[in-house]
Write a structure and sequence with these properties.
alpha+beta, three-stranded antiparallel beta sheet, 6 helices, 31% helix
Length: 127
Amino acid sequence: YFRVVVLEHTKKTKGEFLELLGSYDPHKKALQAQKERIEYWISKGAQISPTVNNLLVNYKYWDKSKMASWKPKSKSKTKEAGGIKPAPAKKLTSESGEILNAEARSETPATESQSEAPSAEAVTANI
């Protein structure tokens, strides 16, 4: 159950309001609103929220276009961060179950991408 209210922008949405303009019951999908009072407050400079605007459009209270009431998640943030997290590094062990020391790990050949890419220290030094 939601209320359609008029309130000052400095007030909390669940607090004090100037006027109750209607209500919406999502379970019954029923909207009760005072169209004349809504138009009055808009004429006085009140701004309607996108969600209330879309409800009024859906229930044919007026013939305005719908507004975007939510922002889609940005995919660029996940691409910049590398998307998928790399798997945790596994410990190298010998056949007998002993953990290999650093010298044994350094004997493994490095991949081409690791040897060609400059280190972070070299990049910052060039700037």
